[in-house]
Each structure stands twice: as structure tokens, then as C-alpha cells.
User: Which sequence fits this backbone?
């Protein structure tokens, strides 16, 4: 862990360093994301009038898919100003804002569902990932759910550390490692599927839902 994180509590952390934010701003105009949420699970479990947050919404891909699926009480947050600018040009009807996923401008217990698509993959440092997971728990209502998808580590890889072709540091997970981020939830369901990575090569991802027993 870098010395810049030593001595910081989770509530003091931001999702990304300033350098990482600049990296995402640099690729915001051209990057194409592909990690798919399990939309069937969302339609089965999340009512259409639910209040849904898309964290790490990027250029609005997932938020737009949710709107098309009939969800209207949507808001997306991304820490990259350039990503949100691209999103507002492409999807002007969406409510998308610049914010840090570890410090959301949302009240406690105010959200029904949070969705994340490769958000945690984009956070290479464990303490920052924990800070975001804690923030998700804070804003969720009792009985709220997290629906997500994150990239998995290649078989035999000694570490989850990974650098994209654009030079952005990322993290690929073991399934149980991802589950541990959501230990505050009593139930966990997951599905492994294959998708193209940012570079276009085949990659395994884990779709999941974290929730509490009724």
C-alpha cells in the first residue's frame, strides 16, 4: 500500500488519486465499456419505481440501459468531469453528476438499489475499495441491494494488479475477494460470464447481487 494512504481512515479516502482521475479524463472521449450487468436479475428483483444509483457511471451506458428497461428514478455519479461531459452530450435526458463514489452527496438510507459496472475493477487500492463499499452501505435503505459486475483475475495470476493498454492501473478479482467487500450483506448470488476487455481480448467477469435476507 502506498505511503499516501497510511494513517488515513476509510472516511478520509477518495475513490481515486488525482493522477488516476486525470488518466480517466484523458480516455473519456474514446473508451468503450463492455462489462454487462445481469439485467434479468435486476428486472426480477428491482421494482420499476425504485431509486437507483449508478456509481462509476462513466459516459452513461448502464444508466441508459436501465432507463430503456423502464427505470426512471435514476441518478449516475462519476468522478471524471470529462466522462460526465461525454455522457450529457450523448444522453441529455439522464441525471448524471460528478461526484466521488466514496463521498456521495446522498442521505443515509435513501437509495433502493446501487449498480456498479467495473467500478471496483478501476480502484487498484484495497482501502479505497473498502471506502466505496462502506459508502454504498451508508446510502442504501434497509433491504437495499447492490447489483454489479467486475473483472476476474486470469487463472494462475499471482496478483490482481493490472495495467490497461491506456496505462491505467486496475485490479482483477478472485470471486471470494470480491465477496469480502460486501460482507455486511447476508446474501450473495453471482454468475461468471465472458466478455471483451477494454483492449478487446476475452475476459471473465463476475456478475453479482448482494442483499440481506428478508
Assistant:
Amino acid at each position: 500500500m502506498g505511503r499516501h494512504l497510511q494513517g488515513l481512515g476509510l472516511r478520509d479516502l477518495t475513490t481515486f488519486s488525482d493522477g488516476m482521475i486525470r488518466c480517466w479524463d484523458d480516455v473519456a472521449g474514446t473508451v468503450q465499456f463492455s462489462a454487462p450487468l445481469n439485467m434479468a436479475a435486476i428486472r426480477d428483483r428491482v421494482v420499476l419505481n425504485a431509486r437507483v444509483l449508478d456509481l462509476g457511471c462513466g459516459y452513461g451506458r448502464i444508466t441508459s440501459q436501465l432507463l430503456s428497461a423502464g427505470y426512471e428514478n435514476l441518478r449516475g455519479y462519476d468522478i471524471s468531469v470529462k466522462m460526465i461531459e461525454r455522457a450529457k452530450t450523448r444522453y441529455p435526458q439522464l441525471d448524471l453528476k460528478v461526484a466521488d463514489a466514496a463521498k456521495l452527496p446522498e442521505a443515509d438510507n435513501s437509495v433502493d438499489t446501487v449498480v456498479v459496472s467495473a467500478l471496483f475493477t478501476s480502484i487498484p487500492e484495497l482501502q479505497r475499495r473498502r471506502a466505496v463499499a462502506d459508502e454504498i452501505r451508508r446510502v442504501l435503505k434497509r433491504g437495499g441491494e447492490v447489483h454489479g459486475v467486475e473483472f476476474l483475475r486470469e487463472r494462475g495470476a499471482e496478483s490482481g494488479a493490472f495495467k490497461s493498454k491506456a496505462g491505467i492501473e486496475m485490479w482483477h478479482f478472485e470471486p471470494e475477494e470480491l465477496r469480502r467487500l460486501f460482507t455486511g450483506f447476508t446474501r450473495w448470488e453471482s454468475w461468471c460470464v465472458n466478455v471483451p476487455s477494454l483492449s478487446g481480448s476475452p475476459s471473465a467477469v463476475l456478475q453479482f447481487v448482494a442483499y440481506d435476507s428478508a
Notes: The mean pLDDT is 89. The two ends are 38 Å apart (CA to CA).
